[in-house]
Design brief:
There is one protein chain. The protein has a four-stranded antiparallel beta sheet with strand order 2-1-3-6, covered by helices on one side. Strands 4-5 form a two-stranded antiparallel ribbon. It has 83 residues and is mainly beta.
Length: 83
């Protein structure tokens, strides 16, 4: 059985990469989402389900360069742009 941690990242679309930074890790999605809704609304947030004890890097088959993340669930919470 694969175990996961739920990470909250604050996102800033205007900054250069990396444009997000971790602000909390939780054992369940429910805990993480509750925390997201209690955070200030002047940022956008991302929630990632990250597997424990597993490398989730995805490498491009032809170039061998790091191309992204595999086995990651990714959700966006856009508060900053709300009117």
């Amino acid at each position: 059985m694969t175990e996961f941690v739920w990470g909250i990242f604050a996102a800033d679309a205007s900054a250069h990469f990396p444009n997000f930074f971790p602000i909390g890790m939780y054992g369940t999605r429910e805990q993480a989402v509750n925390e997201i809704y209690s955070l200030p609304r002047d940022h956008n947030y991302q929630l990632l389900r990250l597997p424990l004890n597993q490398n989730f890097a995805f490498y491009h088959k032809k170039t061998g360069k790091l191309a992204g993340m595999d086995s990651i669930r990714h959700e966006h919470f856009h508060f900053k742009d709300e009117g």
